[in-house]
Structure to design on (238 residues):
């Protein structure tokens, strides 16, 4: 597959595209866009207007652990656009194109926190719940048009977000799953036309069998410690 790479960092995307071309012989296009801005999704759609896109992987996201009322309203609006509105607009724009072309795929990346409220990350868990419900519904709505839709719910995947959120790896309930393994597993589930997938058998078991109220408390305490770590980090930089 040729790829369109989208993010704010043109330089990093260009480097990644060159690696993909060298290793896999694919063409790439870089689209520089801030997906937390109201125009972000429209920028992507316009930049792909001349391409026969067949698969959308909508992986935009971000967050900031902390109490809901302690955060600035403008930041909450910005992250709501990033975590919710952008996924909706991309799914709508590319979904209509896929139906018109007679097939395609949409892979929405939500988060495991979407299945219940997360204390100290209430805003993000609520936003991600929209993505989960949107994707699950579209899985059935668009199936007759041969458009495959699935939602990925990563819960404990080894990416830089662990440090960005201020999480202590020692606090994580299980060892983070390598990102490449999580992606391979997710794509296999996508190929089986699953509506939703949680990478990692242990994370799936925890989600299914641990009582919901206990998961809310455990994750809330862990994110509370992450928020404290971020405050200390920000104070040290001030």
């Amino acid at each position: 597959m040729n790829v369109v790479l989208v993010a704010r960092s043109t330089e990093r995307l260009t480097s990644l595209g060159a690696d993909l071309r060298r290793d896999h012989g694919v063409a790439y296009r870089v689209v520089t866009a801030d997906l937390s801005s109201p125009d972000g999704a429209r920028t992507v759609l316009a930049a792909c207007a001349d391409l026969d896109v067949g698969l959308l992987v909508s992986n935009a996201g971000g967050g900031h652990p902390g109490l809901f009322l302690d955060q600035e309203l403008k930041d909450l609006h910005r992250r709501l656009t990033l975590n919710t509105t952008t996924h909706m607009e991309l799914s709508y724009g590319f979904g209509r194109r896929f139906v018109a072309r007679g097939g395609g795929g949409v892979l929405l990346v939500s988060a495991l926190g979407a299945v219940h409220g997360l204390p100290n990350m209430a805003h993000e868990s609520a936003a991600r719940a929209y993505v989960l419900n949107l994707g699950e519904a579209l899985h059935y709505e668009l199936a007759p048009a041969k458009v495959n839709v699935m939602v990925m719910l990563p819960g404990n995947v080894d990416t830089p977000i662990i440090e960005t959120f201020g999480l202590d790896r020692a606090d994580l309930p299980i060892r983070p799953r390598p990102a490449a393994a999580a992606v391979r597993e997710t794509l296999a589930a996508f190929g089986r036309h699953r509506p939703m997938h949680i990478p990692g058998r242990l994370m799936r078991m925890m989600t299914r069998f641990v009582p919901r109220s206990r998961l809310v408390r455990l994750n809330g305490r862990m994110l509370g410690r992450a928020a404290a770590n971020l405050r200390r980090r920000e104070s040290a930089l001030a």
Observations:
- The radius of gyration is 18 Å.
- The beta strands are 3-7, 28-32, 55-58, 104-109, 147-152, 157-158, 177-178, 196-197.
- The domain at 38-237 is CATH 3.40.50.720 (Rossmann fold).
